[in-house]
Write a structure and sequence with these properties.
By secondary structure, the chain is α+β, with helices and mostly antiparallel strands. The chain contains 20 helices and 27 strands. The longest helix is centred in the middle third of the chain and has 29 residues.
């Protein structure tokens, strides 16, 4: 099978942070590396998104030009990705003339085929600056949660997608004045007319559980025409329509095509891109964050279908949820981030450690939280104590008993290794990267235990050597099994010690010896050093943001105004699953469905409700509380229960059944 892997094109208006890495680039890289080991033809592309309001706004804030902004951040983005081990085959940019040509071709094709319509629409106009205001140039009060600094396209606090005209008390970010409404002609993509084709495509795919409800809710509500052009002086010009550019949501996904074409040109094979975009034997997989689900599962396929030029549609879109930082949403604009290039500068020898922690915390179906405490715990108690200590123990014993060994592997070790590789492959093909990593840790735990029980250090040297050499096969396997996760230092260093190359994944799944003889090239050193409290303090000082986190809801003891109360986002959810939390008499783990997918809530109601009695019931969910971890389970928000007689808790829900995600007003 042939695969084309794409990762969300990062905006060239600022650096990448750990949320970007965990959300799109790390899972894409793990998968690309795994597919190559499986022997599949794999092309992994990405590039800088260099148009749109995010760029012009940054340029305006810094009193410079959009070109200067993208020329500053494009090389930083690529450098950060490559230094953190993202194995891209090609990284380009959407300011390239070829991308302009591709996007304009699609616009003209859709116009000719009747999929575009021109409409006069009301838009905000800044009377002081004498210009139309793009959505991000407008701020106001969110009509859903009451946040007073919501953008014209989305509320950063509650995450609701908005249009500028929905904001209460809108004002221009350029001048601060209240904008006026004026008519402007724009082209719209007829998504409503394309819905039957999009729905037919939707039914041919199997979507992740956090992706499916989002698509289904949009289709159930009915697709509507969407503006494809805007009034802006930075972007891809609309053919024969001066003063207007193509919307980024339209042209940026087309960058996947233009970037593949640029890759083909760089290989001296200008037509090679077609086997990735026009051959049904290719599977195209887009790795993105959840805020881009609609554009990649509905809008982009609609554009390809409308063009009618034989383009291959996405095979899957394994979108991730969000990674938070110390209990608060990551925010570039508010400087609540840990930027990748700064991490690399502060800890150049701990890149694999960051990859390990972010894989363990990967927000695959729900938001997760990065804390420095967990960073330390994952490195010291899992990566080192479970995995690399085993590797170092075996390497040291091999060196102790001579640096050359004939390997005779016990059958149980061969079976463990093969079963682990097969289980990992199944998890990786399901995009469950955390499970794949945990499966590998499970193998290390079993091997640690068996080695301790064998205790070769208590035996005669010749007997000890035979036992230890049997574990050398496991080390050879680790040199490949670790490659998707820890490719910068750990996996290649282990292979250098053993003087071996990568094996194919299928070879690791085969329960026959990988090597007949092992020759250690050098005395081993620990692959990962323990993270000390002093090093952690230094990292925190260098990397923990100095800005305040994004605004959160005030504590209950604070007197509330009606505006304060409106900041609490209450939604109706349906409880889809419930189970008891082990060793916690009061806690239930509940899976609830809202309008944006499934969420996990840990609730202290186990003494008042059995798990089965809650399944299918509706409840009121406080949706915009920061997540917290209870008994090792990340819990999002909370459900409301009333306290009845004798302290009994009673579920609070709607009088009649309503769609999951309905706002409580």
């Amino acid at each position: 099978m042939r695969y084309l892997i794409t990762a969300a094109l990062p905006y060239a208006n600022g650096p990448l942070h750990i949320g970007h890495l965990a959300g799109a680039y790390l899972p894409a890289d793990i998968w690309a590396r795994f597919l190559r080991l499986k022997g599949h033809e794999t092309l992994f592309i990405c590039g800088s998104d260099e148009h749109g309001v995010a760029i012009t706004l940054r340029a305006w804030q810094e009193n410079t030009s959009p070109q200067a902004i993208i020329d500053q951040y494009h090389p930083l983005l690529e450098k950060s990705l490559r230094e953190v081990g993202i194995s891209l085959d090609f990284y380009g940019r959407t300011s390239d003339p070829l991308h302009h040509q591709v996007a304009q071709h699609f616009f003209s094709t859709l116009l000719t085929k009747g999929w575009l319509e021109k409409k006069a629409v009301e838009q905000f106009w800044d009377p002081k600056a004498q210009t139309f205001l793009p959505d991000r140039y407008i701020i106001g009060t969110c009509p859903h949660c009451g946040f007073e600094e919501a953008y014209g396209d989305q509320c950063e606090k509650c995450g609701t997608l908005l249009s500028p005209t929905e904001l209460r008390d809108p004002r221009s970010r350029l001048t601060g004045v209240t904008p006026e409404k004026r008519l402007s002609e724009q082209y719209y993509l007829r998504l409503d007319a394309l819905q039957p084709q999009v729905e037919a495509f939707f039914r041919t795919r199997s979507w992740k559980p956090n992706v499916y409800p989002v698509i289904q809710s949009w289709l159930s509500a009915g697709l509507t025409p969407r503006a494809i052009t805007r009034d802006l002086d930075w972007g891809i010009p609309v053919p024969d329509l001066p003063g207007k550019v193509l919307y980024v949501w339209f042209e940026a996904p087309l960058g996947y095509i233009s970037l593949t074409r640029k890759w083909a040109e760089s290989q001296g094979q200008p037509t090679a891109w077609e086997r990735f975009w026009k051959d049904p034997d290719t599977r195209i997989v887009h790795f993105i964050g959840k805020d881009n689900i609609v554009f990649h599962t509905l809008v982009f396929p609609a554009i390809l279908l409308a063009a009618g030029e034989g383009y291959t549609l996405p095979h899957d879109v394994p979108a991730n949820e969000f990674l938070n930082l110390e209990g608060n949403k990551l925010s570039t604009s508010r400087r609540w981030t840990i930027d990748i290039h700064e991490y690399i500068a502060a800890a150049p020898d701990r890149i694999d450690e960051l990859r390990f922690v972010l894989t363990a915390l990967m927000p695959q179906t729900q938001d997760r939280d990065f804390t420095w405490e967990e960073y330390t715990s994952r490195i010291n108690n899992e990566l080192i104590a479970t995995l690399t200590n085993l590797i170092h123990r075996i390497l040291s014993l091999l060196w102790r008993y001579g640096n050359t060994h004939l390997v005779k592997v016990p059958d149980f070790l061969l079976q463990w290794r093969a079963e682990t590789a097969r289980e990992m492959a199944h998890a990786l093909f399901s995009y469950d990267f955390s499970k794949a990593l945990n499966t590998l840790l499970g193998l290390a735990q079993k091997a640690n235990k068996s080695l301790t029980e064998a205790a070769p250090w208590h035996l005669q040297a010749d007997e000890a050597q035979k036992i230890v050499a049997g574990y050398g096969d496991l080390l050879a396997a680790f040199g490949t099994l670790l490659e998707p996760f820890l490719p910068v230092h750990v996996a290649p260093t282990l292979r250098r010690y053993l003087d071996i190359q990568l094996f194919t994944w299928d070879r690791i799944e085969d329960p026959t010896p990988l090597v007949r003889e092992l020759r250690l090239a050098a005395p081993p050193q620990p692959l990962v050093k323990k993270l000390s409290s002093e090093e952690l303090s230094s990292l925190r000082e260098k990397l923990l943001p100095t800005a305040s986190p994004p605004p959160s809801t005030p504590p209950p003891s604070t007197p509330l105004t009606i505006e304060d109360f409106q900041k609490v986002l209450l939604k109706v959810v349906t409880i889809r699953a419930a189970e008891k939390v082990p060793k916690a008499d009061k806690l239930l783990k509940l899976t609830v469905e809202a309008d944006d997918g499934l969420h996990t809530v840990v609730s202290g109601v186990a003494q008042h409700y059995s798990p089965e009695s809650l399944i299918g019931q509706q409840a009121i969910w406080v949706a915009n509380l920061p997540p917290r971890t209870l008994r090792g389970i990340p819990s999002e928000g909370m459900l409301l229960f009333a306290e009845g007689e004798n302290g009994t808790l009673v579920r609070v829900g709607p009088e009649k059944t309503v769609p999951p995600g309905s706002i409580v007003k």
